[in-house]
Amino acid sequence: MGVNMPKITISGYPGSGTSTLVSGLVNHFNWQSINGGQIFRDEASKRGLSLAEFGNICVNDESVDQELDEILRQNISGADVEIIESRLAGWWAYKLGVKSIRIWVEVNEHERANRVISREGGSLNSVLEANAKRLAIDNQRYQNMYGLTPDDPLAYTHIIEASNISAEDVLSHAIKILEGN
């Protein structure tokens, strides 16, 4: 499309559809993206650990999270990509003063659980419980390390309420934001 935009950050809790949105934006604008979750998965693989094992290390050793977050911050400040996806990407861009459009994708807990079930299986109650536990642990870590909660609207220029709309509608809404319509 040739749209010359500042960096875009896409953030949201697991199951909110951020990866789907980023994929749509990459395809629509022919942009490049970096995924914070992929940085995490790559580091787990590099260490020969499962995601759960590596996640436990992060919970018990804040320095590991801080190293991964530093990689993300460096990419926000200097990488030659247009889209950065991570739960904290909007916060890092905000705190670093990087000119950017910072989108939070808001989805209620039941819809996030249903999306996880359709992707990975499981029962509604077990996924709701697992999501709530992960969210509580992660939010406590972010509060302890950085004094922030990912969904605090202060860091975002736009919030897309996506609980009751399709992935195509979320993409359409984001494109309108990015094109200034």
Structure characterization notes:
- This protein has one domain: P-loop containing nucleotide triphosphate hydrolases (Rossmann fold, 3-Layer(aba) Sandwich).
- The protein is 58% helix and 12% strand.
- The protein contains eight helices and five strands.
- It has helices at 18-29, 36-46, 51-60, 62-78, 89-96, 109-120, 124-146, 167-178; strands at 7-11, 33-35, 83-85, 100-106, 158-161.
- The longest helix is centred in the C-terminal third of the chain and has 23 residues, at 124-146.
- The model is unreliable at 1-5 (pLDDT under 50).
Short description:
With 181 residues, this protein is α/β, with parallel strands linked by helices.
> Helical residue percent?
55-70%
CATH architecture: 3-Layer(aba) Sandwich
Number of domains: 1
Count helical runs: 8
Coarse morphology: globular
Order of helices and strands: EHEHHHEHEHHEH
Averaged pLDDT = 89
CATH structural fold name: Rossmann fold
Query: Could you say which structural class the secondary elements and strand pairing correspond to?
Result: alpha/beta
Strand order of the largest sheet: 2-3-1-4-5
Largest sheet: 5 strands, parallel
**Low-confidence runs:** 1-5
Fraction in beta strands: 5-15%
Report how far apart the termini are.
15 Å
Q: Strand tally, please? A: 5
Radius of gyration: 16 Å
CATH top-level class: Alpha Beta
The CATH H-level homologous superfamily: P-loop containing nucleotide triphosphate hydrolases
